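Weekly sync, protein design subgroup
Attendees: M.S., D.O., the rotation student, P.L. (late)

Item 1: inverse folding check
M.S. brought a backbone from last month's batch and wanted to see whether the design step gives back something sensible before we order anything. D.O. pointed out we never logged the input encoding, so this time it goes straight into the notes. Structure tokens as presented (752 positions):
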């Protein structure tokens, strides 16, 4: 049976006041508000959870805002399946302007039809329909507009939404389409709190139906977690020793890699339980970073002073002097609160920056980089189920039956003689090298919850057992499913939002798969053996592939491009550079291409078999509002894995091995592909570039990858009087790529 949860809404006007905006954000945290509409904000920060109108007069604040639109005095977006329209209209404009504004606002509501709609804002119109004691001309026009658009008024009672020294008014209004109005609960004016504005908050809830009834901000139990800072190393070593004894006493016969991998995971869980406490599921913080108990008391004092003043004003007989004195107490209380918030924010910033010397890469660094965030539910839990399913399906498309282009000669395929080749045992040196890489990182734990640093400590006793398991995996050509995304509560998908892209587009999300650290150690050993084979026996990867290769940093790729350009320009020539955008590259590379590339590079059969098992039967598990979802993988390499980037390079290397026209070069950093073409003039360079890009795009497509030519960029390096004519471009596969004077590549801006 379907159940309900509620979305919490907040509406207000903060009169362009900085401290009122601070207080609004605290109120949102305290009340777990999902969506807020704020008129006259102090400023609108450039964050994904803020969406402002064209002239900064109204904003929507919410975690997931999709399908946005905006105009002068209004902004709209969809959140939680509901269209939210925020609006503000100045009291200083005339009635004709107001009527024109409502026509535009009505068109906005119509554009989102038939989806449920909320229209919230301060329209500076008075009407008895929403509790005002008088109806003015604006109110009459707004009443007619409400009927025309089919909306209903949510305002209840006659509590003022705007209160000034000499009176009050009801100008903040809430409208809803009937389908939403029937689900609105507890609409009220929050007269019990101070806002530091002459407007009061409006609060209400909207019940929403889901199949599971899970609240979007409720953390889902996604596996155990332990408090690593409270680890008892002595207990951990003792527990590891006990597990080692247990394993030695039960070792008999051939190794069942699936069973042993499951045992190892269970052993790690017991060791962690014995040596450190578990971390309980987190809940959203109920306060902003600068909030203190003192400020909370000052806010209460403000409310008390205001109530005394408003109660006195309701008396029939009043002493003007006493009334002014009570108002002065209220005003002073507000000023004290205002100053306290400013002082608290300043102290918090000073404390944060003061810790820079003690912890240069901790909180100050993450704050500057924008990585310090209050707890929020995983992105997948805040997205609409239909959107989440569409995004996951687009990021992990189904691709079976793709035929890879031939890369290897028939002699490179498996033969009976090769199948019988002995598999080198995993050595202590290999294991410790992999462990040292793990020790140097501080990444999020996988689905088993075991921190990497805790795993490192257990290997003092369990390393022989783990090495034996790794050797058995390589001998049998298996990769345990417990270390892949197979099964419930094993591999978890995390979506990271990319800035500057619409929230309803799959390209706005980067998928990361969280994997057990023990499985990553096996991946590291396989990757190290692969790299060793490529370097010593080969064929090695193309020298112009710089991505994910030790000793080949990003700056080397940039330096190569710069050297090509400087050499050509110094001789009076021109270089045209074209950056190609490969759509969803890592998640769509067919496995058939990886297998064929492994044959080409003459990778030992035992590694090919193990990598084949690593790729097969993978799936991603994710948590949405309606519970767990699962998507089977049929192509691509997992982002968040150790082996994935290397397999991408091996599969994509065929593109770099292709012949290019004279004067053309190819530089790659993983999937970032840059074609450069040299010529004595721009026209000659453009002809070379057109031919080279066409060949490269054709090879990329033969790998089963898609090039987004509409997102590709081009620029030209030239000397004096060698600039191309305005509007220059090249055409590839019918797509026009404009030639600019600058281009962003590998995070840097290249300039002609």
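Designed sequence read out in the meeting:
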């Amino acid at each position: 049976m379907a159940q309900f949860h509620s979305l919490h809404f907040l509406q207000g006007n903060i009169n362009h006041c900085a401290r009122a905006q601070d207080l609004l954000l605290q109120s949102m945290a305290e009340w777990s508000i999902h969506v807020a509409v704020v008129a006259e904000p102090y400023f609108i920060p450039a964050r994904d959870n803020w969406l402002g109108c064209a002239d900064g007069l109204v904003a929507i604040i919410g975690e997931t805002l999709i399908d946005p639109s905006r105009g002068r005095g209004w902004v709209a977006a969809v959140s939680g399946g509901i269209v939210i329209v925020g609006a503000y209209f100045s009291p200083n404009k005339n009635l004709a302007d107001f009527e024109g504004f409502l026509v535009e606002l009505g068109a906005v509501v119509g554009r989102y039809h038939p989806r449920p709609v909320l229209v919230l804002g301060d329209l500076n119109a008075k009407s008895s329909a929403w509790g005002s004691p008088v109806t003015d001309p604006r109110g009459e026009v707004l009443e007619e507009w409400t009927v025309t658009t089919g909306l209903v008024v949510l305002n209840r009672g006659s509590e003022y939404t705007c209160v000034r020294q000499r009176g009050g008014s009801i100008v903040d209004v809430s409208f809803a389409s009937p389908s939403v109005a029937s689900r609105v609960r507890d609409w009220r004016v929050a007269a019990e709190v101070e806002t530091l504005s002459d407007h009061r908050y409006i609060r209400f809830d909207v019940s929403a139906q889901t199949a599971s009834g899970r609240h979007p901000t409720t953390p889902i139990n996604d596996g155990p977690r332990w408090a690593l800072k409270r680890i008892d190393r002595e207990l951990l070593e003792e527990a590891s020793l006990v597990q080692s004894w247990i394993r030695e006493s039960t070792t008999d016969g051939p190794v069942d890699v699936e069973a042993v991998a499951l045992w190892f995971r269970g052993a790690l869980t017991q060791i962690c339980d014995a040596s450190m406490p578990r971390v309980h599921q987190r809940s959203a913080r109920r306060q902003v970073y600068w909030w203190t108990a003192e400020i909370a008391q000052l806010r209460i004092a403000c409310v008390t002073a205001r109530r005394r003043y408003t109660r006195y004003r309701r008396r029939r007989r009043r002493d003007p002097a006493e009334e002014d004195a009570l108002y002065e107490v209220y005003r002073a209380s507000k000023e004290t609160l205002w100053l306290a918030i400013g002082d608290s924010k300043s102290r918090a910033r000073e404390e944060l920056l003061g810790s820079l010397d003690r912890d240069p890469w901790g909180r100050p660094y993450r704050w500057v980089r924008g990585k310090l965030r209050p707890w929020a539910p995983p992105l997948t839990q805040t997205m609409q189920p239909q959107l989440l399913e569409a995004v996951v399906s687009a990021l992990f498309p189904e691709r079976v039956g793709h035929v890879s282009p031939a890369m290897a000669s028939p002699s490179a395929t498996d033969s009976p003689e090769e199948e019988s080749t002995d598999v080198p045992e995993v050595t202590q040196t290999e294991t410790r090298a992999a462990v040292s890489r793990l020790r140097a990182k501080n990444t999020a734990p996988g689905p088993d919850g075991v921190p990497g640093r805790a795993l490192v400590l257990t290997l003092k006793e369990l390393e022989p057992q783990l090495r034996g398991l790794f050797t058995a995996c390589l001998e049998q050509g298996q990769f345990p499913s417990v270390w892949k995304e197979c099964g419930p509560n094993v591999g978890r998908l995390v979506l990271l939002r990319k800035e500057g892209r619409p929230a309803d587009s799959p390209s706005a999300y980067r998928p990361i798969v969280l994997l057990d650290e023990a499985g990553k150690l096996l991946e590291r050993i396989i990757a190290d053996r692969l790299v060793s084979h490529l370097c010593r026996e080969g064929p090695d990867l193309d020298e112009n592939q710089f991505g994910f290769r030790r000793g080949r940093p990003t700056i080397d790729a940039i330096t190569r491009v710069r050297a090509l350009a400087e050499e050509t320009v110094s001789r009076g020539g021109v270089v045209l550079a074209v950056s190609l955008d490969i759509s969803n590259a890592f998640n769509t590379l067919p496995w058939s291409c990886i297998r064929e590339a492994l044959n080409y590079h003459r990778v030992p059969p035992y590694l090919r078999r193990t990598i084949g098992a690593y790729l097969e039967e993978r799936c991603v598990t994710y948590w949405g509002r309606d519970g767990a979802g699962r998507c089977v993988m049929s192509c691509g390499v997992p982002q968040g894995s150790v082996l994935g980037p290397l397999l991408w390079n091996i599969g994509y290397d065929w593109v770099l091995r292709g012949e290019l026209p004279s004067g053309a070069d190819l530089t790659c950093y993983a999937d970032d592909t840059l074609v450069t073409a040299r010529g004595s003039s721009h026209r000659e360079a453009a002809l070379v570039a057109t031919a080279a890009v066409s060949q490269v795009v054709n090879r990329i497509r033969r790998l089963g990858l898609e090039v987004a030519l509409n997102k590709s960029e081009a620029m030209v390096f030239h000397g004096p009087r060698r600039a191309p004519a305005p509007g220059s471009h090249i055409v590839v596969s019918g797509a026009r790529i404009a030639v600019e004077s600058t281009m962003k590549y590998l995070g840097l801006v290249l300039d002609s």
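Discussion: The chain has three domains: 3-210, 228-278+378-647, 293-368. Residues 228-278+378-647 form one domain.
Action: P.L. to compare against the previous round before Friday.
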